[in-house]
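Thread: quick sanity check before group meeting

JM: Hey all, I'm pulling together slides for Thursday and realized we never actually wrote out the predicted structure for the chain we discussed last week. Dropping the sequence here so it's in one place. If anyone has concerns about the input, flag it before I start.
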Amino acid sequence: MPLVLMLHPREHCDMADLPDELAAELGVLSTHIVRHVQALPHISRAHVYRIGDGGAHLHIWFFARPEGQTQLYGSWMPVWDDLLPEYPADVADADAAIVADALVVSVGGRRSAAGESPQD
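JM (edit): ok, ran it. Output follows.
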């Protein structure tokens, strides 16, 4: 996939354990992430998944479906990710930076460097 992003709370909890305030924030953040991913010129859709059955920490995944690749419709897209040729890392990194910067503008906070834990 051209872009795969993950959103998770800093607190150790699963979906059913989210306090209402974090649940509301999850909805807003997810919606903004989808908007920003789908605004990329070569992306036609952002798929959103909750993966990690049995895990005690919530992870929400965002997979960007490339424009013109209709064979990737539906819930099998994460499986296709392992089968497709590797996407250029520099393009994926640039796309992730665009989405992160747009997210900061639309909802606030700051973008962290790779490997850094965000504080805002």
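AS: nice. Strands lie at 4-7, 43-50, 60-66. Helices lie at 20-38, 77-83, 89-107.
JM: adding both to the slides.
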